[in-house]
Amino acid sequence: MSDTVYDLVILGGGSGGSALTKRAAGYGAKVAIIEKGEARDASGNRTGAGFGGTCVNVGCVPKKLMFLAACQRESLGPGGIAAGMGISIGAGSGAVDWAGLKQRRDAYVRGLTTGYESGWKKAGAEVIVGEASFEDRQTIRVKSPDGSSRQLKAKNICVAVGGVPAPLNVPGGELAINSDGFFDLEKQPKKVAVIGAGYIAVELAGIFHGLGSEAHLFFRGATVLRHGFVRRLFCWTAILETQHCCCTNFWVSCLLRFQPPA
Ligand SMILES: Cc1cc2nc3c(=O)[nH]c(=O)nc-3n(C[C@H](O)[C@H](O)[C@H](O)COP(=O)(O)OP(=O)(O)OC[C@H]3O[C@@H](n4cnc5c(N)ncnc54)[C@H](O)[C@@H]3O)c2cc1C
């Protein structure tokens, strides 16, 4: 163990850990950030996201790229923006090269990931790759990917290790993929059942639909987006979607079927 005592050690290089690292190091604190890296268990389930965390690697960023792709395709469809603007669309337009889209999306994400690491270093933080665990209130052990381990002493420790998708606890649930699996898809499914009523399920169903898959959303409650999404969101969505912002057919059918929460 080195004699260094860090002002702050941060476990997890996602959105939370990353922002804290830059801010604390920027104020002159002696900071180390520990990120596990992209890791999966024996069953293939994600246990670590990599530099930038969930948002950058398997969350907001790749999702938004897929969403943009869906918007582009929708704009070309019947009643889409392109036709409305007098742009003629040839036969066969709207065919999706899913594998190519995935390849370019993943390359974009890789570029961002590298930027996270260099951003932390530039801010003056020490970047440590490995799995962190507690030895006591002020001591962290880091197990590196090569199997070696080291100890770090810190005055303050921040746990920002994020979360992973919950398994689907129904018979046959192991046959389903989760949002991580969505980003692994090499081929576009023709027909998809998306299970869930939260924003991730709703967005992924919309993306599938916008890219031309037949998408069905399955949920057990009365409507979608029940928790933390207010009535106003429904109104905004209605305004945006009726202006053909994205996945119009899917959303409009949602809005017609489901009443906003009281
Ligand atoms: C499909 C999807 C779409 C999303 N879209 C949006 C969106 O549009 N807008 C939005 O605001 N949010 C979105 N989110 C949510 C957003 O990604 C999370 O809220 C955010 O990433 C949480 O940040 P975090 O720092 O808490 O954790 P994470 O980003 O999960 O980072 C935690 C990090 O800790 C690491 N780690 C875990 N254990 C250890 C350990 N023992 N030692 C070292 N490192 C460890 C992990 O590898 C990971 O990189 C989306 C999420 C998903 C899954």
Structure description:
- This protein is an alpha/beta fold and 262 residues long.
- It folds into 2 domains: 155 residues, FAD/NAD(P)-binding domain; 67 residues, FAD/NAD(P)-binding domain, CATH 3.50.50.60.
- Helices cover 40% and strands 21% of the residues.
- The protein has 9 helices and 10 strands.
- The strands form 3 sheets. The chain has a 6-stranded mixed β-sheet.
- A hairpin with a 5-residue loop joins strand 7 and strand 8.
- Helix 3 runs antiparallel to helix 5.
- The C terminus is likely disordered.
- The protein binds flavin-adenine dinucleotide.
- The site of flavin-adenine dinucleotide has 28 residues, from helix 1, strand 2, strand 4, helix 2 and helix 3.
- In terms of quaternary structure, what is this? single chain
Helix/strand/pairing class, anyone? Answer: alpha/beta
CATH H-level superfamily of the largest domain: FAD/NAD(P)-binding domain
CATH architectural arrangement of the largest domain: 3-Layer(bba) Sandwich
> Which ligands accompany this protein?
flavin-adenine dinucleotide
The largest sheet is:
6 strands, mixed
**Number of helices, where a helix is a run of at least 4 consecutive DSSP H or I residues:** 9
Percentage of β-strand residues? 15-25%
